[in-house]
Write a structure and sequence with these properties.
alpha/beta; Aspartate Aminotransferase, domain 2; Aspartate Aminotransferase, domain 1; 3 domains; 7-stranded mixed beta sheet; 3-stranded antiparallel beta sheet; 13 helices; 35% helix
Length: 420
């Protein structure tokens, strides 16, 4: 019998979404014992280069978190008052939170009830002449219907940002997230499919000018437009050869400033671990898919359930294991209570954003995304699915899920045993 994990659960939800091992520690030791810098060095360069190769993106630039990547992506949209942005309600708040800083109209697009990704049919009905961008997520690691979405966007000159925080290791018709849209955003938070020591992110970009702007922003330079001064017209005194940063100050003039820069530099330690983790990505995802397969088999034995599956020509990364219970919220509540009693932790993700206080203040509310609301309040289920789970924990979870499903659909059945 395994000892209880965090919170007293025998099968805890992910606190770590990957496994940190000897190879990670060896990379850190190599860095620490070298004479290289601990920031802005060769490890970051290698990590970004490998990430570009993996995703097929034109540019891949590391930052300090997935949230920062999303903030920078929204900056690249150059939004103006009155512009419209279409976004998914079925995601973590960081996907759309940067839009609160802009005087724009956000139109939440309802979801496909089987994938939890934005529904292309609904999406098309929301596009207007003012639509400037689409912000979507590949929910749980299942890639959205990108060919249909990009076809809609390309015809109208709309920029598409794919929040790929869940989708590293997924496939869409032979292609990888991060190069399926104009901008991609990844998270290496502790719970994600790889980690860079707890926090970190990557932004992938299709345009050279965006990459140039992100490089300036993350290195604490203003996001602006600059022009070189004619020879002999420097604004300051003569420069000495070792004045590393002075040339940009004295040899250029600012034509316009969009916003201030910041320090979003990923540390060398984080990048070193990220590079090693990236080499283990396929192994981590294979373990997630193995656990998901066992859960699918258990869930499928009970009528009234639906699975969250990728199309045959794509691959689910299973950052989150999701399935759906029919029969109403009472069935789901019974299921969760039995699972909890049997020591399996449940965390439901995510509350529909258009119903959250900040977006209700902006005029959103119930009834705007009926599918998202119905699924969330009545059917949605997430179960632990991460490489840190042992075979014994998975065995226990499969047994507990099977029992909980039968008891959920049979109110006369006995309540599950006390937590193990």
């Amino acid at each position: 019998m395994n000892a209880a994990g965090p919170g007293g659960y025998r099968v805890p939800f992910a606190r770590r979404g990957s496994v940190v091992g000897e190879a990670d520690l060896a990379a850190l030791a190599e860095l620490v014992h070298s004479d290289g810098p601990l920031t802005s060095g060769v490890w970051r360069d290698r990590f970004e280069e490998r990430f570009r190769e993996l995703t097929g993106a034109r540019h891949a630039l590391s930052v300090t978190s997935g949230t920062v990547a999303l903030e920078m992506a929204v900056r690249m949209l150059d939004l103006a008052p009155g512009d419209e942005v279409i976004a998914t309600p079925q995601t973590f708040q960081a996907t759309v939170q940067p839009l609160l800083d802009h005087d724009v109209r956000v139109r939440f697009c309802d979801i496909d009830p089987d994938t939890l990704n934005i529904d292309p049919v609904v999406l098309e009905s929301l596009i207007t002449d003012r639509t400037r961008a689409i912000l979507l997520v590949h929910y749980g690691g299942l890639v959205a219907d990108m060919d249909r979405i990009m076809a809609l966007a390309r015809r109208r000159g709309i920029i598409v940002v794919e929040d790929s925080a869940h989708a590293l290791g997924a496939r869409y018709r032979g292609r990888r997230p991060g190069a399926l849209a104009d901008i991609g955003c990844f998270s290496f938070h502790s719970t994600k499919n790889i980690t860079t020591l707890g926090e970190g992110g990557m932004i992938t970009l299709a345009r050279d000018e965006w990459a140039e702007r992100i490089l300036r922003i993350r290195d604490n330079e203003a996001d602006g437009v600059y022009a070189a001064l004619p020879a002999g017209q420097a604004d300051g005194p003569a420069l000495l050869p070792w004045m590393k940063f002075a040339d940009g100050v004295y040899r250029h003039r600012a034509v316009g400033i969009r916003a201030a820069g910041t320090n979003a530099t990923m540390s060398e330690a984080a990048a070193a671990v990220g590079l090693v983790q990236l080499a283990s990505l396929e192994r981590f995802v294979a373990r997630r898919r193995e656990i998901a397969g066992r859960l699918d088999a258990a869930v499928s034995t009970v009528p009234g359930t639906r699975l969250h599956r990728a199309a045959p020509d794509s691959r689910h990364a299973y950052h989150l294991y999701t399935f759906f219970l029919t029969g109403g919220r009472q069935v789901r509540e019974r299921f969760v209570r039995v699972l909890d009693a049997l020591g399996v932790e449940v965390q439901l993700r995510y509350f529909p954003l258009h119903l959250s206080p900040e977006w209700r203040l902006r005029g959103h509310g119930p009834g705007m995304c009926p599918q998202a609301e119905r699924i969330w309040f009545e059917e949605h289920m997430n179960l632990p699915c991460h490489p840190g789970l042992s075979d014994a924990q998975v065995d226990h979870m499969v047994t507990a899920v099977t029992r909980a499903l039968h008891e959920a659909y049979d109110p006369a059945a006995p309540v599950g045993a006390a937590r193990i």
